[in-house]
Structures are given as structure tokens and as C-alpha cells.
Amino acid sequence: MGYALKIYQAFKDDNEEKAKVLAEAFEELEKRYPQLTQMSTKADLNETELRLIQQIEETRKEIKEVELRLVQQIDNSKKEIKETELKLAKEIENIRKEIKEIELKLIQQIENTRKEIKEIELKLSKEIENTRKEIKETELKLTKEIKKVELNLSKEIKAVEVRMIKWMFTFWTGQLIALIGILKYFFT
């Protein structure tokens, strides 16, 4: 039961209106101010402060522990990074050596291929020259053969011409005799 009700009951017999006003005043006071059980004392504040200080210290210890762990993890990570860098540097160096070896092999192969190309060029040049000589020799042989054939043809053509002239002479002579015979028959 609230204090306002108690005061009202206590003073209502004397003067009910005053009791009512007094009860309302206490009620307003109760509304404005918290109950004493809810109010903190200096001892409560000190105790809370000590608890908070203790919690702060514990939190600081935890932060330091976490910080130490993180520093260790960072150091470990740095070591791992350095080890990885060294491994990668060695691998890169090995790869560079392999590249140089491959490059040298390729240069040798290129030189060998160039030599082979030059040898093939020389062989082809010789073969081309031989083929040209053979072509010229064949051309000369063919020219001689053509001349022989032309001579033979020319002789054969002359022989044919002579035979044709003989046949033509015989034919025309026969025609002339027949024509003279026909003319004599008509004019005689």
C-alpha cells in the first residue's frame, strides 16, 4: 500500500479535504522520486565502481592476450611469407635457368636448320644448273632432229611435187589431146 493512501486514512477523520490534498501531494512525490529501495547508496556506487574496475582490468588482460596472440600470428605469417618468398625465388631462378637452356637449344636448332637450308639450297642450285644444261642439250638435239626432219620433209615434198607435176602433165596432156580430138571432130 502506498504512503499517500496511508496518510489519507490517517488524516481523513480530522479533515477529509486536507487529508485528500496531503495524500495527493505524497502521491505526486512518489511519482517524481523513485523508491528508496531503488536509490543507490554511496556503498552501492563504490561496489559498482570496483566491479567495473575489475571488469575493465579483466578486459585489458583479455585485450593483451588477444594482442599477443595476434602478434604471434602476424610473426608466424611473416615467417611463412618469407619462406614462401624464398621458395618462389628459388623456383623462379630454376625456371630462368630452364628458359636459358631451352633458348640455347632452340638457337642451336635454328643454326642447324639454317645450315640444312643452305645445303639444300646448294643442292637445288646444282640440280637446277644440271637441269638447265640438260634442257639446253635436249634443245640442241631437238633442233638437230627438227632440221633433219625438215630436210627429209623437204625432200619428200619435192618428190611429191615432182610426182604431182608428172601426173598433172600426164592429166593435162590427156585433156589436151581429148580436147583437140573433140575440136577436130566438130570442125572437120
Task: Describe the protein's architecture and organization.
This protein is mainly α. 91% of the residues lie in helices and 0% in strands. The protein contains three helices and no strands. The relative contact order is 0.02.
Count up the helices: 3
Q: How many beta strands in the DSSP annotation? A: 0
Intertermini distance: 196 Å
Structural class: mainly alpha
Percent range of helical residues: over 70%
Low-confidence parts lasting 5 or more residues at pLDDT below 50?
A: none
What is the gyration radius calculated from CA atoms? 70 Å
Summary?
The chain is built from three helices and no strands. It is mostly helical. The model has no long low-confidence stretch (mean pLDDT 87).
Key descriptive features of the protein:
188 residues; mainly alpha; elongated
Present the secondary structure layout.
Layout: H1 3-11, H2 16-32, H3 42-187
Helix pairs in contact: 1-2
